[in-house]
Write a structure and sequence with these properties.
CATH class of the largest domain in chain A: Alpha Beta
Strand content of chain A: 5-15%
CATH topology of the largest domain in chain A: Aspartate Aminotransferase, domain 2
Strand order of the largest sheet of chain A: 2-8-7-6-5-3-4
Largest interface: A-B, 79 and 79 residues
Oligomer: homodimer
CATH superfamily of the largest domain in chain A: Type I PLP-dependent aspartate aminotransferase-like (Major domain)
Structural class of chain A: alpha/beta
Number of strands of chain A: 12
Distance between the termini of chain A: 56 Å
Order of helices and strands of chain A: HHEHHHEHEHEHHEHEEEHHHEHEEEH
Shape of chain A: globular
Number of domains of chain A: 2
Radius of gyration of chain A: 22 Å
């Protein structure tokens, strides 16, 4: 018999994907340039030339048997070394090659990190709002996602709710405490665009340190950082592993190098993390059962040559400012994003799904945030040509005026 | 706490990898050209120029945003169509694009296929001798590998043992029958080099059809075929899906295109398979939990342009003949391989590990087959320059003469 669990998942269609499919279909009717499709988080700028040049040069000059040969199950040593050196230089955490595990993007990184630090029945805490895929990413490992509600309206981590939850666990007793394996955070955040502040990360580390002591085991921090390089106002994103030793950093080059289809990222294990020396070799073992076996060798090598480059990410800040100013001007309740290519205003009625449905009449494709556990809000993905964002602004104004009298 | 299961796996080092590491270390001492390293199944011939040319052209001429963009979660439609048409044309099974699921090699394909047709506690039957990785590939899905002993000396499937086992299950009752989910086969076979005959496949199909009826549910066939294109004497490998409707074919281009590091393959679902229309979409769901999310877009596209090409695989047949004739001449009990780049003679003493250890004194690196569930045999991987194989032959003769008086 085919697997009934995965069969039943076919009925739970992703809202984002449904809206994106709608936008594509609508584009065929009226021309895609007339559909303001803010549904998908697909980078809109080209990969840096250094990535393309590296890939071409490797293909044209390297011995193909060596170039396309099996990567060691823990990744290509020189690639790991390059990533470790780059991270150490940039963030001051002294990584070595052995602490880097190349993966097929952040999805692959989280699949390994969660399995490494939890077992079936354990809990991984996640903070609303969050990327809805975190639920299958976690639950299909055998562990269980535990959702901590959002901190409205600034969308930093709700530290009080976290502490309350952990107090509750403590009251339930040792078995419940034993199940608390890790927290999974995402900053800059999809869908809110919010960057967790140093203060947030410091307090989170304090709570985790204190509760690890009380619970009698280390609570790990899994930090998902695909948007780390897309940050506004000339700032840099506070690096979570600097604030908490027991951190597994999950990274993808999908956004920074604009290569989401190439599936390249890594897990970086903080050298001060408990059992640091075992975690990457364990991920090699985890790969066997999940059929991972390293990202493409060619892509690993090309990435290593572009490790400190990025695509031209400025367009995202330009777009953010245009949209933020417009939403603000129209009286939307909205936080100014510190990074990513998302903004998450509050809808102009309680039911964000109804709001987004009405927006579709204006060919504005927004995503309601129920699935992100931010009910009442909607996500606008502005990985778009600025020209199109500019053309969308009067349409947004017209929609808000005609439907909501703004 | 870190995961104790994956931690404990660190102690079970792969014999193949240990021997390969020994060979590398020894190569540094005496020169790698003097170590006859027959341990690893790493292709030794370059990828076809068509693959390299396609990859370079894509990089140089395609819009990078499109080229490196997210692949749909079920794979790039044109790539799926190309694979479907190639398989239909070559094997007469009418695949369509929707029945093809691109994966990161056979490991990825098996990870999806097993999960699609089984659930935790189910049994997947495998036939000795088999690739040792099948055990973690299966067991880490939650299903359980059930080993059917080898058919000695021809190493076809032991159909009698299979029938006996299934009879036994029937006696145990409905619950036991419900657990029998699938069989996983591998032809041409690693480690034996044996190609399953039409007769074997036809009889296997008969048994599975009969038992599916008796058990009240379909028993699926998962066919792992990475060596399908490496076949000798101008023959073609009988294509298992032609003989049994409920077949999920797992393929990798690692060997045929000599690109094992690029991690590219697929699952092809027979259109006549039970629930065929659901299986590929289900694999898209399975990907979420295991962090797979498609192989690299660039590699998918380059593969599609080389789908009917192969590297120059003739060297493997040349090497096979040289080794087979030598082993035969020395009185080894050995089957002539029909394909792959492996041969599996019987050792000259009962303990194959002891035999291989003695061979190391002559810098001959063979792999004992206990792990493949063929105790007493050893595997010789002849993906090597023919010149080196020729130089190994007198060393093999010397070893057999001096140690075993042959």
């Amino acid at each position: 018999m085919i697997n009934q669990h995965f069969l039943s998942m076919l009925n739970n269609k992703s809202v984002i994907r449904e809206l994106s499919e709608y936008a594509t279909a609508r584009g065929k009717e009226i021309g895609y340039e007339n559909v303001f499709d803010f549904s998908l988080g697909n980078p809109s700028v080209p990969a840096p030339q250094s990535f393309t040049d590296a890939a071409v040069r490797l293909l044209e000059t390297e011995d193909p048997v060596r170039l396309h040969g099996y990567s060691p199950s823990l990744g290509l040593p020189d690639v790991k070394k390059t990533v470790a050196e780059s991270l150490s230089r940039r963030f001051g955490v002294p990584y070595t090659a052995g602490l880097i595990f190349p993966t097929s993007g952040c999805a692959g990184a989280i699949a390994h990190a969660v399995r490494a630090v939890s077992k079936a029945g354990d809990e991984i805490m996640i903070f609303a709002p969050f990327f809805p895929e975190y639920i299958p990413y976690i639950n299909d490992t055998g562990a269980k996602a535990r959702i901590i509600p959002a901190h409205v309206p600034d969308f930093q981590i709700n530290l009080d709710a976290l502490e309350q939850y952990l107090e509750q666990v403590k009251i339930e007793g040792q078995e419940a405490m034993d199940r608390v394996a890790a927290v999974l955070i995402n900053s800059p955040n999809n869908p809110s665009g919010i960057v967790y502040t140093e203060e947030t990360l410091r307090k989170l580390a304090q709570i985790l340190t204190r509760k690890s002591e009380e619970f009698g085991h280390t609570i790990f921090l899994i930090s998902d950082e695909p948007y780390r390089e897309i940050v506004f106002d000339g700032k840099t994103v506070p690096y979570p592993a600097k604030y908490y030793a027991h951190t597994l950093t999950c990274y993808s080059f999908s956004k920074s190098l604009s290569v989401p289809g190439e599936r390249i990222g890594y897990v970086a294990v903080n050298p001060a993390c408990e059992c640091a020396e075992y975690l990457v070799p364990m991920m090699g073992q985890i790969s066997r059962g999940i059929g991972h076996n390293c990202p493409s060798s060619l892509i690993q090598l090309a990435m290593a040559e572009s490790v400190d480059d990025t695509a031209d990410l400025n367009v995202y800040e330009t777009n953010m400012n245009l949209l933020y100013d417009t939403f603000k001007d129209l009286g939307f309740e909205v936080q100014r994003p510190g990074g990513t290519f998302y903004i998450m205003p509050k809808a102009l009625e309680d039911d964000a799904a109804a709001f987004c449905k009405k927006a579709l009449q204006y060919d504005l494709v927004f995503v309601p945030c129920e699935g992100f556990h931010a009910p009442g809000y909607f996500r606008v993905a502005y990985c778009q040509d600025t020209e199109k964002v500019r053309r969308a602004l009067p349409v947004i104004r017209k929609f808000a005026a005609e439907v909501y009298g703004r």
